[in-house]
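User: Quick sanity check before I run a bigger batch. Here is a single chain. Can you write out its predicted 3D structure?
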Amino acid sequence: MHIFRQCFLVLLACLSLSTQAATPPPTHEFTLDNGLKVIIREDHRAPVVVSQLWYKAGSSYETPGHTGLAHALEHMMFKGSSKLGPGESSRILRELGAEENAFTSDDYTAYYQVLAKDRLEVALEMEADRLAGLTLPEDEFLREIEVIKEERRMRTDDNPSGLAYERFLALAHPASSYSIPTIGWMHDLERMTITDLRQWHDRWYSPGNATLVIVGDVEPDNVKTLVKRHFGNIPARPVPEARLPLELNEPGERRSTQYLKTRLPMLMLGFNVPALNTSDNVTEIHALRLISALLGGGESARLPARLERQQELVAGASSWFNPFARGDSLFMLSATPNIQKGITLDQVEQALWQQLQALQETPPDAAELERVRAQLIASEVYARDSITRQARSIGMLETVGLSWRLLDSDFDSLNAVTPADIQAAARRFFTPQRSTTMHVLPEEARP
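Assistant: Done. Predicted structure follows.
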């Protein structure tokens, strides 16, 4: 019965996405005279709206010696503007029953509010004020930078898995700024000044470097009027050139062993690959998405089914791939050995390579590929049920240099991938010359 229910839900999801792809929600796009791009998607199921303002400014825009600026400015955007004092915008939104937050990544920084549709103007006025009139008081910065340093200690320096992942990314990106951690290196946080943040805000926070995404129960003409009222008079400024973070195609095999304060060993294996934004063959990128799902997408995927349950080599294994990076990407596998069986990291590494070589030698059969494709589609359908996720997908695509229209054609792209495409992508990208391998062991295991 449980298996039948899973199959039924996957089928329902596929039918839903097929319908959605045929008739995507009404979406409207315009650009203000000052360069601010605005995308509005109608969703009238509930009287709620999400507003997200995205900036092309993440850690991949930073340079050595000046890291952590994008994330630090995200914190300071809540510390006062020309109309409101520190924390006042958050207090007002809480009193309205709204949700707000922000996030920073390699490729962008975004700020969002979810609120009743008749309160949208409140969010727009606050966001426009932060864009044009951020105050950046030094006393607030001196307090907040200590919060950020403690965040780094907790999430990275005192967290073995976070520290290992940070070191892995630095090793895996020898030529691009994707080696920079989003929170920044500690020695850069310690010497960061309020002047650094003011310069970062002046450089990247301009209308022409931002995209405003609004999704929900709205009338486009009314929204356009509100956006022009609050953002239209903000002066345009030149947008600096930002080169894509490109990697070497074949940087050569890289290996590292890390001895950290961890109880369990761990293996990370990654391959330098293009993303949709940098590839000359987008079918290969969609094939990599399906390979990631085929290897690690749920309990029926190959890694948990073969390495964990059948061979009992690992206690857990996963795969990850981001096709929507601004620059090149990384295809990653990770696993923890079954220490109860005495399995070593060398054995796990060999087993992971065997799974990749199996794809290179024999493409998946049609039934397996269809199952994996259906599962991936089902997860996409589920995510798109949320107006926040819709807005996030639209904003992310636009901000990394793609188009929000890819959201409505994604099903067709996945559906076009064949077993032969899977095999071709595996053969091209899963090579030692593209690989980074890291063994993470407890400190006690150090020779």
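The two ends are 52 Å apart (CA to CA).

User: Great, the batch can go ahead then.
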